[in-house]
Amino acid sequence: MTAISNISKGSIIRFKGEPHIIESLIHRTPGNLRAFYQANMKNLKSGRNVEYRFSATEAVDLIITERKQYQYLYQDGTDFVMMDNDTFDQINVPEQTIGSAANFLKDGITLTIVFSDDGSILDVEMPTFVEVEVTETSPASKDDRATSGTKPAKVETGAEVNVPMFIQTGSIIRVDTRTGEYIERVKK
């Protein structure tokens, strides 16, 4: 057990029997009342966000984690097969562990997998940005390119992204894997 004051953003704790990652932790001292820590956490099993007030003297169960680099190989049903970059061992990662960022998995992409002290997979950290090729989008006329609207485009991973009108089929774009939003066009 560790005092809540020794925990920081990004730490993984066991809260009500399930692993939660701390997304924000704020120390508050309201007037004449006792100090407390306001924590926003994400349940790593269900994906739900939890808000909780910890007493300043409360202790929490900190999960010791190990982060390892893995390379994405291929999809096997609803699982994704990853290879350890050091030992070349392969593991299957369930789709719900990766979440919506799975839409941007490309062959050979390197991810960080977070393991708990008992060897189970807690989280998969995708790169923040990925570069993907646009495989299908409607052509833009000269008038469309002058405006600042967007249009849907399908990328090589099968995901759909809203892109500016000037993006054409074959363009390479950078996408934020957390939100699925277009960031910029990549120059070749």
3D structure, described in words:
The chain is mainly beta and 188 residues long. The chain has three domains: 2-62, SH3 type barrels; 66-125, Nucleic acid-binding proteins (OB fold (Dihydrolipoamide Acetyltransferase, E2P), Beta Barrel); 129-185, OB fold (Dihydrolipoamide Acetyltransferase, E2P) (Beta Barrel). It contains two helices and 16 strands. The strands form three sheets. It has a six-stranded antiparallel beta sheet with strand order 1-6-2-3-4-5, with no helix packed on it. Strands 9-8-7-10-11 form a five-stranded antiparallel beta sheet. A hairpin with a 2-residue loop joins strand 2 and strand 3. The longest helix is centred in the last third of the chain and has 5 residues, at 142-146.
List keywords for this structure.
16 strands, OB fold (Dihydrolipoamide Acetyltransferase, E2P), single chain, 2 helices, five-stranded antiparallel beta sheet, flat, mainly beta
Short description:
The protein is mainly beta and 188 residues long. It has 2 helices and 16 strands. The protein folds into 3 domains: 2-62, SH3 type barrels, CATH 2.30.30.30; 66-125, Nucleic acid-binding proteins (OB fold (Dihydrolipoamide Acetyltransferase, E2P)); 129-185, Beta Barrel (OB fold (Dihydrolipoamide Acetyltransferase, E2P)), CATH 2.40.50.
